[in-house]
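Tokens for chain A. Residues wanted.
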């Protein structure tokens, strides 16, 4: 038998020790997630591991937020960023993982996951909700996203320079983010909604100091919109301020997405505006090359050329119909803001209708999404034909009309009448766009009966992500 060299034996021993340390931390994570009671043995072993790798013991304190830990230990902020993003560079040249690094990562990952997913029971204070929102933001950063992005909030896109990576390997203990991120976003939203429900929101809103601790989110806005008729005085003022703040933040993100593309083709019948920003330098040089003086090594320009920037636009009518039943609250918020942005574009006439068992024409307030949301009454069932009866008279020139219908299409009676109305509108020449939902996470659920018929009609339900709807509208209004 060949004897294993002493150096290899030492390496194997070290590797096993690091693996055991990592297991201790993850066993503690699991025990805390499924049972909030402290397991003395696991807590003592985890404390020894954390102290041995020079991490603060506060990582094991369930009451300590990630923010508080980072404030006391600023050097850890960089480690939390992208913590759960696979990184092939962490492997050595021979493909062996750095187990010491993985033990440290296990401690940090455990902290973030416990703070976000172990929310306990009972009443939640404004401070606790604020702390959870902050910790959820750190989890999103650890996954390579911006705070608020996975919860269907105000941000969109990946963090600068470090977006979600679907590469596996490297950080071997980290799951593939291509499957994790779509699954975790809705779960974070569900947890946040539960925390909001467990909070005595009316009492918090009545106290300006407590209300100031609230961070607006989709879950909080939903609760405010549901309860707005029961609020008055200071509580109502604070609720409106939170709604206004959230609307402004979402509007800023959506406005940027709308402005990324221009509406209409270039109109060459309009002379280009002779300003420096429109100067076509390449064409100017090319057209004046005959004026080049080899002796002087100088180009004489006798004519400047400018780019055409005017866009050919046809007056368009955009009719947005939004299901305002309880399951569609995020769509209601996003669509009212989106409608107001498109209403501000030249030659786009926007109409907005919301419905559940009744329909309401919100067009007079389409430029102010804040006022629109205050006039909505979330809840109830779906009666699409009522909304269609209100929308159809608004169609005056079918070929210059775009109708966007946002709903899960779960109607009272499988809704043959609604589909027949949609089919007639589509065949008249209207560009009909059915949307399952309009969220930042892209999560949607659509009645299969409708989904199949929309495919047959040639108008398939588009993805529920708000960026997809923006792009579809830009194309349809061109």
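Reply:
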């Amino acid at each position: 038998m060949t004897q294993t060299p002493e150096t290899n034996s030492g390496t194997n021993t070290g590797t096993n020790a690091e693996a055991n340390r990592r297991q201790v931390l993850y066993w503690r994570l699991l025990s805390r997630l499924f049972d909030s009671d402290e397991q003395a043995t696991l807590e003592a072993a985890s404390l020894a591991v954390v102290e041995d790798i020079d991490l603060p013991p506060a990582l094991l304190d369930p009451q300590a937020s990630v923010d508080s830990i980072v404030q006391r230990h600023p050097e850890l902020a960089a480690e939390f960023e992208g913590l759960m993003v696979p990184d092939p560079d962490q492997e050595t040249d021979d493909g062996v993982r750095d187990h010491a690094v993985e033990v440290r990562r296990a401690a940090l990952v455990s902290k973030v996951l416990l703070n976000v997913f172990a929310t306990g029971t009972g009443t939640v204070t404004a401070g606790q909700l604020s702390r959870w929102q902050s910790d959820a933001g750190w989890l999103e950063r650890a996954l390579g996203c911006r705070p608020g992005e996975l919860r269907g909030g105000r941000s969109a896109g990946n963090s600068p320079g470090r977006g979600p990576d679907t590469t596996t390997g490297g950080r071997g203990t980290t799951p593939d983010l291509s499957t994790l991120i779509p699954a975790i976003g809705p779960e974070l939203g569900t947890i946040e909604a539960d925390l909001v429900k467990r909070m005595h929101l009316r009492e918090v809103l009545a106290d300006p100091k407590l209300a100031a601790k609230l961070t607006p989110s989709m879950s909080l806005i939903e609760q405010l919109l549901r309860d707005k008729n029961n609020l008055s005085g200071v509580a109502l003022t604070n609720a409106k301020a939170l709604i206004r703040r959230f609307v402004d933040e979402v509007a800023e993100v959506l406005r940027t997405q709308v402005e990324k593309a221009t509406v209409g083709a270039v109109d060459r019948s309009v002379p280009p505006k002779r300003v420096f920003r429109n100067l076509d330098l390449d064409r100017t040089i090319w057209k004046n090359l005959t004026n080049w003086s080899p002796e002087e090594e100088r180009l004489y320009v006798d004519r400047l050329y400018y780019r055409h920037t005017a866009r050919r636009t046809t007056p368009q009518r955009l009719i947005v119909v939004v299901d305002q039943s309880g399951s569609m609250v995020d769509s209601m918020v996003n669509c009212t803001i989106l409608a107001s942005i498109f209403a501000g574009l030249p030659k786009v006439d926007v109409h907005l209708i919301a419905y559940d068992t009744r329909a309401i024409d919100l067009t007079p307030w389409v430029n102010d999404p804040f006022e629109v949301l205050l006039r909505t009454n979330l809840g109830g069932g779906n009666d699409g034909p009522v909304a269609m009866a209100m929308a159809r008279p608004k169609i005056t020139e079918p070929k210059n009309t775009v109708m966007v219908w946002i709903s899960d299409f779960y109607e009272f009676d499988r809704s043959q009448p609604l589909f027949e109305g949609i089919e007639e509108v589509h065949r008249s020449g209207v560009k009909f766009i059915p949307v399952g939902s309009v969220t930042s996470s892209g999560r949607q659920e659509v009645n299969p009966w409708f989904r199949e018929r929309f495919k047959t009609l040639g108008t398939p339900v588009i993805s529920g992500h708000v960026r997809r709807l923006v792009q579809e509208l830009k194309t349809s209004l061109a």
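Confidence is low (pLDDT under 50) at residues 1-10, 92-96, 154-175. Residues 266-299 form one domain.
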